[in-house]
Amino acid sequence: VWHLHAQPLQSAPSAATAASPDAQAIWNSLARPAFDPSKVAQVNNLVVERDRLRITLESGTLHFAQPINGIVAAAVFQGKGRLQASAPNPQETQRLQYFLKTDGVNLAFSEAAFAFTDKTFEEISAKVQFTQGSSSGDDLYSQRIAQSEDLGMALLPQLFKSVMAADRTKSALFFADLKTDDKGWVEASDNAADAEEISVGRFQTIVSGYRGFDAWLSFPAGGRTASAAYNDPFEKADYLIRSYDMDAAVTSGAELNATSKVNLDLKWAGERVLLFRLDSNLRVDKVTGASGAPLAFLEARESKDRIQSYGDYVAVVLPAPSQSGGTQSITFHYAGKRVVRQVGAGDYFAESFGWYPSYLHDESFASRADFDIHFKSPKRYAIVATGNKASETTDGNQLITEWKTDVPLAVAGFAFGDFKISQQKVGDVNVEVFANRNPDDDLQNIQNITSGVLPGSPQYAVALGNLSAAGLAPTISTEMGNALKLFQKYYGPYPYKQLAVTNIPYSYGQGWPGLIYLSIVTFLDDEQRHELGVPTTPRVTEFFRAHETSHQWWGHRVGWKSYHDQWMSEGFAQFSGNLYVQFRDNLKEYIQRLKDDKQGLLTRDLHNDQFDSVGPVWMGARVSSSLSPSAYNVIIYNKGGYVLTMLRMMMRSAGAGDPDARFEAMMQDFCKTFENKPASTEDFKAIVEKHMLPNMDLERNHKMDWFFRQYVYGTGIPHYDFHVSVSDAGSGQFNMNGALTRSGVPDGWMDVIPVFAERDGKQSQIGTFASIKPETPLNAKLPFNPGKVSINSWEELLAEVKQ
Asked: Rounded CA gap, 691 and 694, in Å?
């Protein structure tokens, strides 16, 4: 039995004292079930099918556990078995080819642990004869459950939720953990609570001891497309978070203590357990319902500084089954360290996610909620958070502030510390930069070494000065303001009243609604970066800042419906950063950024696979795996950005006025249509088709199927050979004759090719032509001398071009 502070089994989470005896006993039984000596069967060619999954127990012993809360939910098998699975679409077939070099799963296994809350027991009972006996594999089940918790799978809370439900239809789960002959332990599941119910894959070490799940297959059951399954991202959610009322206190000792009231709309009837995500470094000591009465809850083990979490979940037991259409308010009280870390004198890093209860699965950017947050923080420090500051008072050494949202937000975050604040107005938007006055510990150590402060440290000829973020704060404020102006022109109004920017002591950035976290590297000046060996390029300066600024539109003004659609956030931000480089710097720097993006896609990973071939942008986070850990950053960012780049150039006007006017109208329409809502890839495609020009209609159906099929849902980078000559036709006319030859992609490939001519010593776009066949002639008569005619002058084609 698991009690608070008593954890004899690694896989068991700490169970709070508020957990009721029945809930606690059920949880314990799911972690280590008692097997029924009267439910042993010798099986031969017993088949269990779940959609495209087929598990055959060819010969061996199958042993079921005793009922838990009235349901048999566990079994183990030893003998000979086979797992088979097939893919429903080309994208999933590509995944199987990538991982297994075959079009289907066909693996032999010798041991299996099954967890289920569907009709598996009833189904198998009708096919076998049980005998009295025992199985030497009874411990197998608890060992595999322990391993799943160790890997942070959160399988146990999902089983607990389903077993506790009055109606298990919507949470029915079938999970098979199979010891295969060739691939080690492989997981196959049919989970009714997931939009993509069917999944097959395995855990593999990715980097530095971290293990991630290689999803060989993941797709909706019943032949549904992913687009249909995620059309309503909350179709299968049992609750919607309507709003938060929070009181949070942060200390100079980097502790967080919070009370979060989560106000819910309930969707399903008969639920006894609701699952939430909360960083497991935060320990919950009390959960109460609307009346203030304590609720039973269980939480994952504390992660501390472990590389991999044991799971970031809290399972809350309701006092009575939920009612469809009802409401519920649940208040969590929790505290802990490591979610906020002191990284220097007056310098703190606050995790931007996981510090308050949210959806267990990744639905946050598809949802929106109101936030009302009261902070207590040290008076000597400034604090900034998402939303609008509604009030500010002091109480002794405490600063008390309230932050309220005027529109629902996907997420909330905060930062505090010894900040220098720089601000400027961009129209009606107040841009504020909160920059730490002192360097973080790592930079301080470097500064001490280079200045000779530390005993025995060498003397360097060049002093780095103060490596704090404060010096460049005014510049950052100006840069962010300029990015806002550009993006409002292209995408429409900035969605919030203010924009706050702060530094974090790492190399990445993150854009929360109205609050942007930027790497400390971008707050250093050119000389400091040079001395630290960090090149001053747009990637760490203007591009990087603009990329994060654009997330105010891509991710917040417009969210995404599923992981398949997240490329529209990161890819669109990549495009935005490049666009800002064009206007802030020059065309040459912009073209170099596109060259770098393309080269990244052409580069090969650790297994010698060209990054573009690893998977399509539509596959989202699944393109990263143990085989190619960095594929997500290359494919989703670089290729996602290229999708917009190519659309922009197809729509670009060669006449007078704003050449991007039609592209801007399309992007503004997309933002307005999905204002503060999530969008899918197909939603964006529909907007593109609404604004597409006749030259883009290559299949003559007024659809952009060809483009999305190739560049969003597929892989491939064509190679083009282009040759053209210009001759004087007399009477002020000029003949342009040439040909375009394509290779490296299937014959059905097609593209819209922008054409450039030389005018006044510069290459400018004069039009486009369609490349539908492997060889395309180019013959035209022009009323001017085009000089040197070329394609891909702006690196606007995701193609290798020889000319």
From this structure: 10
Distance of CA 157 to CAs 140, 149, 271, 801, Å? 19, 10, 13, 53
What does the alpha-carbon distance between residue 53 and residue 326 come to, in Å, rounded to a whole number?
36
Determine the pLDDT at residue 197. 98
Got the DSSP string for 112-167? EEEEESSSHHHHHHTT---BS---TTHHHHHHHHHHHHHTT--HHHHHHHHHH-S-
Reported as half-sphere exposure (CB side, CA atoms, 13 A), residue 726 has a value of 14
Report strand pairing: 358-359 vs 273-277: antiparallel
pLDDT digits (tens, 9 = 90+) for 530-560: 888 888 887 888 999 999 999 999 999 999 9
Contacts of 191 (CB under 8 A, 6+ apart): 158, 172, 173, 174, 175, 197, 199
| DSSP summary character for residue 554 | B
Residue 678 CA to residue 700 CA, distance in Å, equals: 30
> Does 195 or 459 have the greater pLDDT score?
195
Strands lying side by side in the sheet with 35-50: 35-50, 53-65, 74-86, 104-116, 173-180, 184-191, 198-207, 210-219
Share of the chain above pLDDT 70, in %: 95
Does residue 445 carry a pLDDT above 90? Answer: no
Write phi, then psi, for 51 (nearest 5 degrees).
55, -120
CA distance 64 to 55: 17
State residue 758's pLDDT score.
Answer: 86
* Contacts with 489 (C-beta within 8 Å, 6 or more apart), sequence order: 664
Pairing state of beta strands 296-299 and 239-250? unpaired
pLDDT at residue 764 in the model = 87
Nearest alpha-carbon partner for 665 in 652, 678, 655, 656: 652
Contact 53, 190 (CB under 8 A): yes
681/693 Cα distance (integer angstroms):
20
Q: In the predicted model, what is the mean pLDDT of the chain?
A: 92
Distance CA 305, CA 138 (A): 33
Q: Considering the entire predicted model, what is its pTM?
A: 0.94
List phi, psi (to 5°) of 266: -85, 140
Q: What span, in angstroms and rounded, lies between the C-alpha atoms of 97 and 614?
A: 10
Q: What is the dihedral of CA 297, 300, 301, 307, to 10 degrees?
A: -160
Could you tell me if 719 and 743 are in contact, meaning their C-beta atoms sit under 8 angstroms apart? yes
Exposed/middle/buried for 586, CB within 10 Å: 0-12, 13-18, 19+?
A: exposed
Q: Are the beta carbons of 516 and 504 closer than 8 angstroms?
A: no
Distant-in-sequence contacts of 437-440, Cβ < 8 A, 24+ apart: 437/346, 437/468, 437/470, 438/344, 438/345, 438/346, 438/347, 438/468, 439/344, 439/347, 439/466, 439/467, 439/468, 440/343, 440/344, 440/347, 440/505, 440/520
SS3 41: strand
CA distance 374 to 403: 6
Q: Which two tokens stand for residue 730?
A: 């007399």
**What mean pLDDT do residues 723-744 have?**
94
Written as six digits, the tokens of 442 are 């790592």
Buried b (16+ CB within 10 A) or exposed e, 471-482: bbbebbbebbbb
- Give the distance between the most distant pair of CA atoms in the chain: 101
User: What single-letter amino acid sits at 179?
Assistant: K
